Amino acid sequence: MAHAHCHSHGPAAESDQYPKMNYGPGAKWIKHLTKDRLGTFNGGHFSDVNLSSVLYTHRIDNQENVKLEVWSAPGLTKPSFEEAVKQKFRPARKGESFGPSFEFDPGCEAMVFTKDGTPLQGITGGYGGDRRVEHIIPRSAVKAGKYELVIESSCNGMFGVPWNGDTIAPPDMNRYFQLASADLVVPNMEAWHLMWDFQTLRELTDSLPGNTSLQNKALKTANAIMNVFEKGDPSSIAHARKVAEEVFGEGWHEKSDSIYEEGPEKAQIWGIGHCHIDTAWLWPYRVTQQKVARSWSTQVDLMERYPEHRFTCSQAQQYKWLEQLYPPLFERVKAKILEGKFHPVGGSWVENDSNMPSGEALARQFIFGQRYFESRFGIRCKTAWLPDSFGLTGALPQLIRLADMDYFFTQKLSWNNINVFPHSTFNWVGIDGTQVLCHMTPVDTYTAQATVGDINKGLTNHKNLESSDISLLVFGNGDGGGGPLPKMLENLRRIRATGNRSRDIPPVNMGHSVDDFFDVIAKDSAAGTELPNWWVLLQP
């Protein structure tokens, strides 16, 4: 008589973990609907119940806790801090309108000073991508229970006050601005970090091409975060942040700036903070001077909070204005230069046009520029810097090398709407055969927002990957936008954490200078001999 025996070996043990019966619907994931859902998690119609509703735990604006006083400078005058604080101030309140268009900007630009006149940071109002309206109150002031500030505001938009909204339209000299907020707030920083987590995940979902593993994982993780979050349950924020580690890695946040020390040995995208400020464009020189002070003070402040942050700016004229008009801030900038965190570049007096001036005028740009940098900071710039020039004369390579610089950065040729310049990294050879090592960022801008799209473009749009596979990411808001924002530095940390675990996004690094970037290109290309050459004119 035959007997059948069932033995529970490996396969049977595995089947114990896989249910025998299934009565669920099991519908196929409709990807585009899930992507659309992500847009409802922050702001918008559901801001009273989504993540926006928990970004602040407290907010007060009553006169007992926030006392405002105002004095308006007459006409188009620009008084010094010492002159302004001696004037008679009157009580003010949130909601007031100020103007006309010359010296106010709660909806745009302002500078925060201590009561003794030390610049602390810039403010950019409004609700655009360059919004920066937060000022962190020192713990000592919180303990004392009293904090006094002086805020100098300017009645101008980011690009002047055009009467019809067109950037280059004539100014509207009767435009007024409204003080939208002057509140004491307590931010829920865990909620802010979750917002930044979610934003990076959404960028990965929207910006990565095709149907990659990382793109789908980011979408699935972002959707799971939305499922976990509950407005009335503070613990759900920590839970949601734990979910984000599916993409960023376990415990990544505690690593802070050391996240850049992990992962691939070679980074393909090099991040450098920047704030391009036109010395002369849509505003008087006095406004340029204010824009410089606002932007650079903000970056010095960010360096204290983000150790990896490096910031670069050109134009000796702007450094001299800072030295003359804001001596305490100049000393803070100088200290950061000596620490190797604030990097002068360019070697010229201003970011000059090179098509109209004579050779002697161009030579003097470098003579006076390098002389200033050496006299104030003990350095000469190694990298010439003209990202905003409409074409470049073939005489520049010789003049750049004579000014003791080997490298050159430019970018504006990429904005041509007809011709596509064929190179990203190359040797630019001048009219006499003199060459400079040149990089034109594939990101196609000197005001990048440090997004996943920017990082990806730095590789996919690079035109010389066969010779050099690294790109410079020049990020930050210019012309008074204050340069890089905290959210940009937060985003880059998350992008690096992602790149440490996935090959679907180029690795990005921080903490280096523009000169370091070019040094690597020179080394990897056998001193430029493996790079293509471009002769004489660089014209759009």
Automatic annotation (TrEMBL):
Sequence ranges assigned to domain Glycoside hydrolase family 38 N-terminal in this UniProt record: 269-534
Entries under Pfam families matching the protein: Ams1-like_1st, Glyco_hydro_38N
A GO MF label: alpha-mannosidase activity
This protein's GO CC annotations: fungal-type vacuole membrane
GO biological process: mannose metabolic process; oligosaccharide catabolic process
InterPro entries (alphabetical): Ams1-like_N (IPR054723), Glyco_hydro/deAcase_b/a-brl (IPR011330), Glyco_hydro_38_N (IPR000602), Glyco_hydro_38_N_sf (IPR027291)
Domain Alpha-mannosidase Ams1-like N-terminal: 102-185
UniProt-recorded name of the protein: Alpha-mannosidase
